[in-house]
Amino acid sequence: MKKRFDIRFWLGVVISIFFLVLFFRKIDFNQLLDTLRSADYRFILVAIVLTFISYFLRAVRWQYLLLSIKKIPFASLYPATIIGYMANNLLPARLGEFVRAYVLARKEGIQTPIVFASLVIDRLCDGFTVMLLLLLTLFTLHLPKDMAEADALMKSGGLITFVLYAGLVVFLLLLKRQTVRTLHLVGMLLKPFPLSLSNRLIPLLGSFIGGIRIPSRAGHVSAVLASSILIWTFALLPIDLVLQAFGLHLPISASMFIMVLLVFAVLVPASPGYIGTYHYACFKGLSVFQIPEATAVSIALVIHGTSFFPVILAGFYHLWREKMSLGTVRKAGDAA
Questions:
Q1: What pTM does this model have?
Q2: Residue 150: per-residue pLDDT
Q3: Mean pLDDT for the chain?
Q4: What does the buried/exposed string (b/e) look like for 207-233 if buried means 16 or more CB atoms within 10 Å of the residue's CB?
Q5: Given a cut of 90, is residue 138 above it in pLDDT?
Q6: Which segments cross the bilayer (predicted)?
Q7: CB-based contact 247:43 (threshold 8 Å)
Q8: Which of 118, 151, 270, 302 might form a disulfide with 65, Cβ 3.0–4.6 angstroms?
Q9: Is residue 259 assigned to a domain?
């Protein structure tokens, strides 16, 4: 059967190429190589270790999100997490989330949609933590005086984004706790729109929230919140360590600023591994601090490399341990 043309994949490739051209367009490659050679790679090794600690903490949080279904051991959760992030780096359309759910469901004998529903809450936790980080960054970072207008705009935009995201979280909590009342309210709000919209959206929301299980015990909720903060702390520290590897000692708010930019960069459609968009966002973030171009490009390459290649190697190792192949999990992701 002839394989259909995947417009999303090729659009992502074009976008990646565009940003790679912007990223490398003025670079002296000899100077770039000299800068890469001058780095202290001991800091980068520590950065890789901390990155894997953040993945382990993701497995910890995931265990708490799945407790209402089954207490799953880390021996299953951690490999599934690593394989999922490897798949996100190698496969298009962020199939890693589906792959992560499939691998765990296969090993623990749970239905894949139920496991995937837990990842929806997982991502909401990430989003809310990043929004808090965004606010903290914008109100502690001091940009140059010539960027005062951009600084004010970013703070306003960040505050609006946080309020909207907080509103979404509150809506989902109400939808879970007071499903009938919340769906009735949604129906009232949709009255000015065509009836077909209400007839499609309300059953969809009901079906979606029915599969979501939110931790109810105070201790479990606290564990989810604490692990979310630790996850992003251990994702932040590697950026600061890479900066130190290149002899830069910027305030931690600078690393926070770069990380927030990277989070938004991975939302832009791109080729697998966020190539181009990730690099350019990091480069532009570093340029705010007037870092030389060759150094900024080197740092962007290394930050991407520390989060890209080690998890791919670890992912293939865990695939081998689970007696699975990349082709198998890709087909599972496509099916999901």
A1: 0.86
A2: 63
A3: 87
A4: eebeebbbbeeeebeebbbebbebbbe
A5: no
A6: 7-27, 39-57, 124-144, 156-175, 220-243, 255-275, 295-320
A7: no
A8: 118
A9: yes
